[in-house]
Structures are given as structure tokens and as C-alpha cells.
Records
---
Amino acid sequence: MKDKILMIVFVLVLGSILTAALVAVNYVTTPVIEKNEEIATKSSILGALGISFDQGKVEEVFASNVEQREQNGMTYYVAENGDIAFPYSGSGLWGPIEGIIAIQPDFKRLEGITISRQEETPGLGSRITEAEYLAQFQGKRFTEGLKLVQPGRTDADNEIDSITGATMTTDAFIKILNENIRKAMPAIAEGEGR
Amino acid sequence: MRSAAKGQSLKTFLNGVWRDHPIFSMILGICSALAVSNKVENAIAMGAGVTFVLLATGLLIAMLRRLIPTRVRMITYMIIIATFVIVVDRVLKALFPDISQAIGPYVGLIITNCIIMGRAEAFYIQNNIGQSVIDALANGFGYTYTLVSVAVVRELLGFGTILGFQVMPEGFTKWVVMAMAPGAFFVLAIFIWIGRSLAGMEEQ
């Protein structure tokens, strides 16, 4: 009997001490982690809008160049030159893909795309995050939807190269972009009075 | 007496880094060794994480070894390990967000890393603090150097880089298989083969 009580006391005491330690760690790290996430989002937005910035000055550059607006529960970001950025998300081949889409002030062409989260195959699907791949989106016309074609065969201005060996990922990625653009445009047009 | 203790410490250390090497001798902890060895940077972070958890767990369990009731020792290991793993995860997220994103879910899986549970049951519960700390360092080091060696081969062939620096000449064809799971199996198997041959180990 005494053994059992001691056992219970031991587990309770150890559990409480360790839980208290975790609460302390959580308390100290949470603000830092939130700050990191905020900076990651802001640098992703700046990247999509094509605004260059120093790694250490994300906050200042963001505050002086970008304005946050809201319409119908959707948050989007407007740059000084009229470019508009908004977040997108969807399922890739293996996991969620998230990031920022930026469009030009004419509401017809893309300004840039960034990816802040993806879990595609390293070396194959993950190549969608490469700068050369994402660069081709600039100036592409999205009004009739983006279309995926074989590498090197793009001619119309809404066509995007796929990546050899990553067909499924690039396919999913284009679908995510089209769907998010389609959903976001009405709210943004309303908010901007178009 | 002093030299006997020293000899014991040396033996504990060598056992951890070589004779009872967690990966190639005991084949423990290979899940994470396979998963995060695609880049050297990730391997170092994972190695450091596991070493820290081993060290903290070893220290605490060796300290409490006379208090821990035999019947609940497993659950005691689990909560101690889980606590330190959560600490590692939070600290990585706060200080090294990029690395944390790259190895993400595998940090949580340190909890189920058999090396830690195995060492706790086999060593820390029976030995004093000094020996336990040495054992933790040795096993952590053994795990880390294996991960880093596998990662060097995989990153070099799979991405053409080491720690993100371009090493292979321009135009080098990347071995995509090395960056993916099968590459990890090939390289780790070769490593285990070499390690076991050098140590003269035979399957019973």
C-alpha cells in the first residue's frame, strides 16, 4: 500500500515539475516564435510584390511600402505602385502548399509568386520553390486561368512550364493558384472599387 | 581507484561511439537517421537535438534512479524525454526557424527515438551521474557522426552541395534518388556494412 502511494506521489510530483518547466519554456519562446512567423509572412509578401529588402529590415520596409486592407473577411496587401498581394493555400502532391500571389494593378497579370510552405519531394517537386521557376510567373495573364505545358513549349501568355520529373506537383500547384485567384478576385475587386 | 574510474569512463565512451554504436551495432534510431540525412545542415541539427535530449534525460534519470519506482519507470522515461523534446522543438522554432521548418515533424519524433529509451533502460537507471553523462555524450556523438557522414554522401550526390555550398562542378547531374528515401537506405546500409566489418561484428 505504502509503495503504491509513493508511486503515485512520485508520478504526480515529477509530472508537475516537468509541466511547470514546459509552461516556462512556452512563455519565453511564444513571442519569439510569433515574431518569426510574422517576419516570414511579411518577407514572403514583399518577395511576391517584387520589393527588395534587407533580411534584417523586413518590418521597416513592409511598414513603409505595403498597406493591409480587408474586404468580405479577406485580407490583402496593397503596394505603393498598386500591386496587390494575397495569401493562397491548397494541397500539393504530398502536403499543403502555401504562399503569396501578387497581381499587377491592371487586375489581369501576375506580378510574382512566393512559396512559404511545401512538403514536396526534395530535388523533384520541391524545385517549384526555385527562383528560376517562380520567375516565369511574372507578367503571365491569369484572367482565363493559367495553363501548364511541357517545358520549353510556352507561347501563349498564360502558359507555364512544368518541371520534368515533377508533373504531379506542378499540376497541383497550377490548380491551387487558379483556384485561389478565382476565389480572391471578387473580394479584392470589390474592396478596390473595380 | 582514480585510474579505475577513468578506465571505466573511457570504456563507456568507446562503447557508445564504437562497439555499441547505436546505429550500426544496435540498429536503433534509424527512422530519423533515414529521414533527416538528406542535407548536412539538417543532420547536424538533428544530431544536436538528440544529443541534448540524451544528455538531459541521462542526467535526470541517473539523478532520480534511486527514487524512480520500478513499476512506473517506463512512463517516467517517457515524460522526461517528452519534456526535453518539446523544449528542443520550441527553441529550434524560436532561434532557428529555417532548420525547424526543414526537419519539422522529426523533432517531435525524437520522443520515439529508441536510442534514448534504450539507453535510459539499459544504462542511466543503473549507473551514476558521471557515467551516464559520458554515455549520453558518446551515444549522441555516435548518432551525430553517422547522420553527418550519411548526409555528406547524400547531399553531395543529391544536390551537388555540402552545407549549401556548391561543391560539384557546374553541369553535374544530380542523383535525385539520393535526395529521396531510397538513397538513405542505400547509404545507411553501406555505412552499417563498413562499420560492422571494421568492428569485426558477426550476426549470431
---
Amino acid sequence: MMNLKRHLLAAAAILAIGAGSAAADRALKGKVAIDGSSTVFPISEAVAEEFLSVQPKIRVTIGVSGTGGGFKKFMVGETDINDASRPIKSKEAVKAAAARIEYIELPVAYDGITIVVNPANDWVDHLTVEELHQIWMPGSKVEKWADVRAGWPDRKIKLYGPGTDSGTFDYFTEAINGDSQACRADFTASEDDNVLVQGVVGDKDALGFFGFAYYVENAGTLKAVPIDDEMGQDGPVLPSMASISGGAYTPLSRPIFIYVNARAAERPDVESFVNFYIESAPKLVGEVGYVVLPKEIYELVMTRFERRITGSVYETGAHGSLAELLSIQ
Amino acid sequence: MTSPDRSLAADPGLTKKASRSLRETAIQGALFLCALVSVVTTVGVIVVLASESWTFFREIPVHEFLFGTRWTPLLEPRSFGVLPLVAGTLWIVLIAAIVAVPLGLGSAIYMSEYATPQARSILKPLLEILAGIPTVVYGYFALTFVTPLLKSLIPATQIFNAASAGIVVGIMILPMVASLCDDAMRSVPNSLREAAYALGATPMEVSTRIVVPAALSGVLASFILAASRAIGETMAVTLAAGATPKLTGNPLESIQTMTAYIVQLSLGDAPAGTIEYRTLFAVGALLFVITLGMNILGQRILRRFREVYS
């Protein structure tokens, strides 16, 4: 009797050790809850779809509450991963610390916020950052195209953009108006980028902005506007894979992230998913329409996740390229 | 020895009086508690709205809130004038009334004055079904059917606009108007109708000159109750009317109603305890006061109408 029991215990122990070491290969079960940015959503969705064929028993659910809305859920531990199209804000980081949630910040791609107009719009050849500022600043007096530049039509501009919960909105207002959330109030807002696409496609006088992938998806029905940042000699730059990753398309290029709950990362299902995400990002990001990060950066990101380095590289208000910021770890 | 009177001894009411009375008291108490729940809930809601709004109004003066014309609690620079939201709500109510009042009153007149009992027995349930459609379906219907239709008629229509949302809210409150007007008109004594017919009036004259004026307070009450329902409508306007708080004279533009703003803020990332968060309660309190006022007005008029003919 004792012998049998001891044998059973030993067998169980060996099985457990064997199972733990082969975690990547064996079939895992579990649930990964993701929410957040609508900009990052296409990437996360593509990864989740591919992941289903690798680990069919892990269920990945992805919500689209906006970067801010997603962080709200992330801060109370409702989600394991938050898609974010901007770095975590300091007040959000404070809330995380208060809730004792540690997060691992992982850049996954570059995005360029694309300014779009209707294809029938033949007067806009480019826009400068200053003109964009005049159009979008709080209390802006710009009502018609003629107010932006002399010679443009005397018709009302119809503005479309993501709402205040959107990371794209935060980043755009910070880059163009200098303060995130500083913006005029009378534009048509929607968290759903598809609605914005429809709005611009249906209106000759429309001007909108959203992530590069939504432009690429609808490139036949929209016209992207080259942006001139009036610094350096490049002139107006059209957003493209090359100009975004090369840094020519400024100031509207930005890295987009996933934030992983450090405690959730200890679960084999979440760990397996995030590893798969970082490994397949080079392939899937380009397919979806975003701009792939250089290989070295993906390696730095993988190291960051393996070492479970928590906190944000932007915490101290740091600026600089991703390569520089990530190498500080 | 005679046996006790069967009828008396066999009566359980007399022999078990004490336990019966106890059971009755217990049941009465339980039912009273049920009724108490609704009272407690109402009081609770009022207390929460009032206390959070009071904290809000300590920072933002009431007149700035009620009469300011810029509503940007989530954008820099912050501004807390609620008139754009009220204007958005009023646009929806106005358009819904334009749809529901003629159609509802017309249906009611047809059902009570012209329709055969058979036609009525088909029409009335159909109207109930219209009332039973979930509001979110109406919202989706506005966005995917009514807006493209309006756009084909008037190209200047924006993708979110007050008109589509107003139209579907009108369809949503139509059964309420029709049903209440119908009840009001059927309560008019037949003697009035018979007298009019005897004098040679046509059905049209009877309906418009005799019945509707006689049922006027009931008809008006139905309009007010339906309007208060339209004010509180959330799902359809959130989906179809937009999220752009502005004062505008054009119903084909994107606007935002008080209810849609509450949805936007609740689903968003305003941290609890901040002034943006408290706007939730301020706008909620305003909505509550407006709806309550209209309901009280509607009930008063309705009660007046009931007295006249009972």
C-alpha cells in the first residue's frame, strides 16, 4: 500500500516537472482578456486569430473601449492586456501603483496618424503642422476651407476625429496642439474608426484623422494628406511604411503598445500568448497595415518581457527613439 | 348531552382566529416591505444625485452650468455650460413630436372613430409590437437605414445627425401616443357622438369638432408623457445622434443629448472623484428634474380629464 502510494506520488511529481518545462509545446487552456485601443485592435485581432491555430484551447477576447477606457479596466485587474496607442499617462501610472498593478510596456509597431480628405477634394495638396493647429485648436475660429489658406473654397470644413477616450485623439492633440485633450469641441467624434471613414467618404468637405491601418484598408476611397512639419528640408511627407518607420513622417508617427499585467504574465496562457505576439509581430503588423519595428527593437521587446521589466520608459518624461529608450533597461 | 353546534365548531375562522390573524399580519408586513423597496430606491436615487450634484455645484456655479453655452468637460479648456446638451435633447424631442403627434393622433382617431372592431383588433396589437422593439434596435435602424435615406434626399446630412435619431424616437413613442389618445377618446360618452350624428355631422366633423376637443386633456397628457419618454431616451440617440455637444439650428448635424453624454462619460476614463466625473451627476440630476416635472404635469392633466367623465 505504502509502496503504491509512493510510486503514485513520484509519478505525479515527474509528470508535473515534465509538463512545466514543455509549457510552450503542450496544449494549454485558459482565457486572455484584452481591451483598449481601436488602433491597436487590428494587430491584436490578427495575432489572436493566428494564435487560435497554435493553441486552440486558449480563448482570447478583445474589446475596443479606447486606450483610456481600456486602461480604466486594466487598473482594476479586469483585463490581462491593454492595447494602447499612446504611452501610459502619469495619472494612470499613479492609479496603477495605488491598485498595486504592475505592468510590462511592450511596443509592438509604429503607427502614423493619417490626415484624410475626400477623394473629390482637389484643393488640398498638403497641410502644414501650423495649419492643422489652426484648424484643431480649442476655440478655433476656422470654419471654412478659405480660412485655412487663401484660394481654398469658401465652404465649411466638416471635421471628423476619434473621441476623448481614444489614444489616437490624445496623441494627435498633444502633437498638434501641445496639450493632450486640448481641442475644439465641434467635430464629429466617434471611437469607431470605421464610422469616421464612412463620414469622410460621404462628405466632400470632410477632414478627418485616424490610424494608418484604417487609411490603408480604405485607400481606394480616401485621400491622405502629406504633412509638412516645417522643420528640416523634407517638405510635405505622405504617410507610408517607409516614411513612418524611417522617421520622415513627423510629428504624427508614434509607437503603439500593449501593456501586460505583470501578475497575469505569470499564467502560462497569457505568457504563451504574449510570446507569440512578439514573435509573430514582424509578420502580422505589416499584413494589417501598420509599420514594423526594426528587428533589433523586437529583440529588445522580447528581452523586456522575458525579464518582466515593469514600468514605462516614458515615466520620467523621457523622449527619444524607441531603441534608445528600450536599451536603458 | 347534545353535540356542540357543528356549524360553529367546524368554522376554522372562529377556532383558529389567533394564528389566522398572525398570518394575515405577516403577509401584510411582507407586502408592505415590497412597496417600501420602491420608495427606498427612489429616495436613494434622489439622495445620491443631490449629494454628488451639490459637490459639483460648489465648484461650478449653478447659473454657469444652466446658462453656459459651451460644454467641454473632457477637453481643454474646460467649460461646463449645459445648454448644448439641453438643445440636443430638445431637437430630438421636437423631431420625435413632429413624427409621433400627427401619426399617433391620426391612428387613435382612426381606431376609435372609424375602424371596425375587427380592424381595431389587428391594429392595436401591432402598435403594441412597435412599442416592444428594443431601443437599441431602433438606434441601429436609424444609423443604417434612416441616415442613408436622409442622405440620399438631402446630401448635406451628416453621418450622425439629430434628424434620424428624432425620427426613430418618434416611431418609438408613437404607440404610447396612439394608445393614450385612443383611451381618452373612447372615454368620451357616446351620447355626444350620437347627438352630433343626429344633427347631420360627418364622421370627420364628429372626430375633429366633438370627440378630440372633449378628450383634449387626455390627448395633451399623452403628448407630454410621450415627450418625457423621448427626453429620457438613451440608446437610440447614443447610436445615431452623435457625440458633438453644440448649439445649432441644423438638425442634420451631429449633436449630443444629455443621455448620450452620460453614456459617453460612463464608458470612458474619467477617474472617480474628479469634476468631470461629477458632471455625470449634475447632468443626471437635471435630466431627472426635467423628466419628473413633465411626468407630474402629464399626470395632473390626465387626472383632470378622468374626473370630468367619471
